[in-house]
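Continuing the series of single-chain predictions for the mutant panel. This is the parent chain; the variants come on the following pages.
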Amino acid sequence: MKKHLFILNLIFTFIFFSCSFYSEKETLVISFPDSQKEWHLVKRVGEAEENFFLEAGQKVECEFDRNKPTSLLAYLDGEERPLGAIYPYSIRLQEKDGFAASVLYSLYCQSKQGGEETAYFLCRFNWQKFMESCRQKAEDPWSLDKERIMKAIASGHFSLRDIRAVEKNK
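Parent structure:
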């Protein structure tokens, strides 16, 4: 009997301490490619947006909500197309992921629901597969039909067929 109580006590102690040490936040360092210009980093999840302005070669420490898709867009001064990443899948800012990160950013910005509701909805979307598909489907992801993609994701009926180039009017 004492042995069973000891084991139960041990299990409860383990569970208690495991839960108390788990943090819902994660702090990561983001570095930027070398450049002669200033970087502008925009980090957005739900309604929360943070802006950082950094000199070339600087690093920034950012806090993230674990497992919530967070858009990271890094603009070089004077450039239209940002480098991008989507946390938690990557924090490495890349040109080829700028489009996917901008889709997530735009969905957060244009949501008519609350930030937490939108974040929950967007957590269920497979952002990692979306980033890979954008890289594979187009040499230049910025040529893809962003509006079509955003409507499909927002409606919950997105498929890989929605990833296509913008149709040009004749």
